[in-house]
Design brief:
Elements lengths: L2 H14 L5 E2 L8 H13 L17 H10 L2 E5 L10 H14 L3 E2 L1 E3 L6 H10 L4 E5 H4 L9 H10 L3 E4 L12 H10 L5 E3 L7 H10 L4 E3 L6 H6 L7 H6 L4 E2 L11 H9 L5 H15 L24
Parallel strand pairs: 1-2, 2-3, 4-5, 5-6, 6-7, 7-8, 8-9
Length: 315
């Protein structure tokens, strides 16, 4: 598709599905100095990327990125932040809380790291209304079941707040990536609402097995099924029927702005799976609307307080 055709496809996508918009649970908004360093790492094609070239498609200033995302019909999104060392998470949470306060369609996002005091700033984030947490096991290089996180996981489990977790071994394996550490965590905290980022690539089958055992485990589709991911970590054809089986536990994610193809291609990659319009409606909007109790959005969301119908079911 040309650029104009891609934009037409994206903006027409919700209307064709009779949806009020798209909910994207995996977008990155960070402090400017942090995002510039992240982009610098992508430019270097470093080892955490498997030394693959990764030109950023939406390398713009914050206000331009927000305008672009909203122009695509995205009604709610996140500000995925994550620390790579101690004494960073609390500061990122402060920035993200401020960003959510001035960006009404952003789901208030927080993070944590295995360090003394983590429970205190996680408790503060929960009390301040965070809607979602983000962890990056590969970048942070820590075991998700580290004892320093015991109290944190207890707090998060009791609050029922989803945790988007990059825990698969793609694009490059880390010391603590893969299904084993997550299985160990879930044995201790079986009610955690873990959202397995990137569908757990490349250990798709193993993470789907975990989801079969733990009903609170979900997935996001970030970069999955695109030409880029399929070339390196293709989703196994034998597991395609399981995507339909888990259709109510899969959420759309894009990794915007840190993608090297168009936003439309991420949506097209889902549509060409051939799983039907109902599946697309659930993945691209309804599952997230239910998870975050967003209600029916008709414009940019105001996400300060969850909204539900009198039945308690979000639509």
């Amino acid at each position: 598709m040309t650029g104009d055709q891609d934009l037409e496809y994206v903006t027409g996508f919700p209307a064709r599905l009779e949806l009020p918009g798209i909910i994207d649970v995996h977008t990155h908004f960070m402090p400017d100095q942090v995002l510039r360093k992240v982009w610098g790492y992508f430019d270097s094609a470093g080892p955490l990327l498997g030394h693959r070239e990764w030109p950023i498609a939406y390398r713009d200033e914050e206000e331009v990125r927000l305008k672009t995302l909203r122009g695509f019909g995205v009604r709610a999104f996140t500000s995925m932040v994550y620390p790579h060392k101690p004494q960073m998470a609390a500061w990122l949470n402060e920035w993200s809380a401020d960003f959510a306060a001035r960006t009404p369609d952003c789901l208030h996002t927080s993070t944590f790291y295995p360090e003394p005091g983590a429970a205190e700033y996680v408790r503060a984030a929960i009390e301040s209304g965070t809607r979602i947490f983000k962890l990056h096991i590969q970048v942070g290089d820590y075991h998700p079941a580290d004892p320093l996180l015991d109290e944190v996981w207890g707090l998060v489990q009791e609050a029922g707040i989803p945790v988007v977790t990059h825990c698969g071994s793609g694009p490059a394996a880390g010391q603590f990536t893969g299904p084993g550490p997550i299985a160990q965590l879930l044995r201790r905290f079986p009610r955690l609402r873990l959202v397995i980022a990137h569908m757990g690539a490349p250990e798709y089958s193993e993470f789907l097995d975990l989801a079969a055992e733990y009903p609170s485990v979900l997935f996001d589709t970030t970069m999955n099924f695109t030409d880029f991911f399929e070339a390196a970590d293709p989703f196994p054809a034998v597991d395609l029927p399981r995507l339909r089986d888990f259709g109510d536990r899969i959420l759309f994610g894009s990794d915007f702005p840190n993608i090297l193809y168009s936003y439309g291609h991420a949506l097209f990659a889902l549509e060409r799976l051939g799983l039907g319009d109902d599946w697309l409606r659930a993945v691209c909007y309804r599952n997230a609307a239910d998870l975050f109790a967003l209600g029916r959005l008709t414009g940019p969301a105001t996400l300060g307080e969850p909204t539900t119908r009198s039945s308690g079911t979000a639509v």
